[in-house]
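Table S2 (continued). Query chain:
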Amino acid sequence: MRRVMTSLIFVALVLALATGAAARIINVPGDAMTIGQAIDMYARDGDEIVVAPGTYNYNFGIRKAVTVRSTNPQDPAVVAATVLRGRTYERPVVVFECAGRHAAKLEGFTITGGSETEGGHFRGAVRCITGSAEISHNVITGNETSGIVCESGSEVHIHHNTITNNTGSGIYCEQSTANIEHNTIVNNTGRGIYCEESTPCIEHNTIDNNSGGGIDLRNCQADPAGPSWSISHNIITRNSATEGGGIRCEDSNSDMSFNTIVYNDAGSGAGIYVSSSRTVRIHHCIIYSNTGRGGGVYVAGSAWGFSIDHCDVHGNRNRNYEGISDQTGSNGNISDNPMLVRPSRTSTGADYHLMSKVGYWDPGTESWRTSYAQSACIDAGDPALGTRNEPQPNGGVINIGAYGGTAEASKTPLRMRIHPRPGIKIGPRIPRIPLP
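Corresponding output:
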């Protein structure tokens, strides 16, 4: 009997501890008057702070592994109605300081009114100083500083945000590890994405019309035996800079693949500018109609670690290649009009899918449509890669450009094939004998 009672007491203690450790939901307003009060006074690691629609005119810090979110982060109407507006001058709206903890999360807000600078550098409407953070489904706009800044060894996952009309870079990473994907980064007065002494993975973003350039890597080094930092499946358009309007890579290792880089402008390397870098491979990219000296690809200095293969480099002003020989016709590189569905130098409503007589994906109608032309970039990739997630019909070879290897890859015309039945031999064609 004593053994049974001891077991029951042990089970009760375990259940009590489990119940006490369960994540809680803290509502603002309701359970707490402010977000800062909810975090600092009531929350513990693992809790969710759910913020009702409204405008919250204050700055706050996140120093615990909690989730701070709107009532529905994936509903654009809720995101627009739940506004975090910075009130204190020269401070971020939100600061992450979660050293030694699991990831804190910020989801589903419109974030505006940040105005911090430090030593002449913009330090972000959202600033990650230490620890891990996940920042998703936010609209970060109208800040007198960069949109998101990560530094001091922080590890961040930045996804599904719209970062627009900020004074400074869209995303600025310094000595950080950053996974940056599925963001729309447009109309910022600095760079779209800037990474220095960091480990970035930059995938499936739209980076458009930023006045400091699209992507800028500085001293992002890794194992010199090969490239490590991935820049892939991005749409990089209409950005401008002194060097590297689309992508600038200095003293860094990088693997740039399946990007569409169009209508960028720079004094040197309007498409891609590579300088003093270790190992850089560019492959399966479309680099088209960029404007500037060495408008397509500009390699400054030694090119011992540089390679380019299976790319379409075409129609760039003042040469497609500068600093290296023309690569057209070697290693799968071509130079043809990519026949994009609806490219535009002036509109944000452009469509950079490849024209196809069989089918291209129309994101506006969410349906497959056909075109009068078939892009040369369809089935122009490395045959060794297969087709990954490309839909049927495809030619068994991957497309190049931002949608290559994805479910939105443009389709290939079916080819007639004759498969004879077993045992039936197909002999030589018998010539027709004219009648007398």
